[in-house]
Amino acid sequence: MPRFAANLSMMYTEVPFLDRFAAAARDGFDAVEYLFPYEHTPEEIASCLTANGLTQALFNLPPGDWAAGERGMACIPGREAEFAASVDRALVFAQATGCQRLHAMAGLKPAGVSEAQQRATYVANLRAAAQRLAPHSITLLIEPINTRDMPGFYLSWQQQAHDVLAEVGAPNLKVQMDLYHCQIMEGDLSKRMEKHFAGVGHIQIAGVPDRHEPDEGEVHFPHLFDRLDALGYSGFVGCEYRPRSGTSEGLDWLRRYQAIASSKSP
User: Fold this and answer.
1) CA distances from 121 to 75, 81, 127, 130 (A)
2) Alpha-carbon gap, residue 20 to 11, rounded angstroms
3) Looking at the annotation, which residues are catalytic?
4) Contact 89, 45 (CB under 8 A)
5) How far apart are the first and last CA of the chain?
């Protein structure tokens, strides 16, 4: 049965960020993820994790000016030094929290820059970042994001991401496969998981098309959870969705799946 991580950027927004760790633990989660921790100190985050017996599954490198619309900088020529600094800043938080997976957002395609330049910059930045993180046993992740939610994002397709992995050639670079984004862009989720499984370092979920709980919409997630078990996936499944109303009240989908999966166990 997969292990699930609550995404604290989208879930438990009924309470302040640092209180969300305890809320997730009360609901039975043993891991959390979120977009960014940088408004707090590494010590504050680590304390919340320890106090609630939680594992830090994932967070993102600093993305540039998020409020101004930036969504990462890895593919943008001229910002290599800033990207390298973002890796160093994230590493401080990762070491404090024991986090072993960091996501580098690719960034929006810069105007007036050729695809070849963007690709060369992206590959070089990822190669350097993976090398920086390798001695700390940290996996660097890249994520294809759908063009409806994030128009202009550099990375949108699973095969595109795995081609980047092959070009970079770093064993600690993997793909963050968000099944919500993948369904919107490509579908055929079971076969895509099987095809790309060796290069997948993290899974995320949300109902499609509205990004609510994964118990409504066009994807039958219990089937995909069972397929992850069959494939031998040992990581966390990040619940990166916006609850329809209260977060805790919307977790019946998880309790039902866990009860059914437990009844099938020998």
Assistant:
1) 5, 12, 10, 14
2) 8
3) 143, 240
4) no
5) 12
pLDDT value for 265: 66
What CATH architecture does domain 3-264 belong to? Alpha-Beta Barrel (3.20)
Following DSSP, what letter does each residue of 141-189 receive, concatenated?
EE----TTTSTTBS---HHHHHHHHHHH--TTEEEEEEHHHHHHHT--H
Residue of 126, 133, 103 whose CA lies nearest to 238 = 103
Return the bridge partners of 203, or none: 177, 237
Among 133, 118, 132, CA closest to 74: 118
Q: List CB contacts of 226: < 8 A, sequence separation 6 or more.
A: 261
Q: Locate 92 and state its tokens.
A: 């401080």
At residue 143, the pLDDT reads 98
Helix H segments across the chain?
A: 20-26, 42-51, 80-97, 115-133, 158-168, 179-185, 189-196, 221-231, 252-264
How is the chain split into domains, by residue range? 3-264
C-alpha 66, offset from chain centre: 17
Residues 6+ apart with CB under 8 A from 33: 5, 6, 7, 8, 56, 57, 58, 59, 236, 238, 240
Residue located via tokens 């395609």 = 109
Q: Could you tell me the mean pLDDT of each successive run of 10 residues in the chain, 266 residues long?
A: 96 98 98 98 98 98 97 98 98 98 98 98 98 98 98 98 98 98 98 98 98 97 96 98 96 94 75
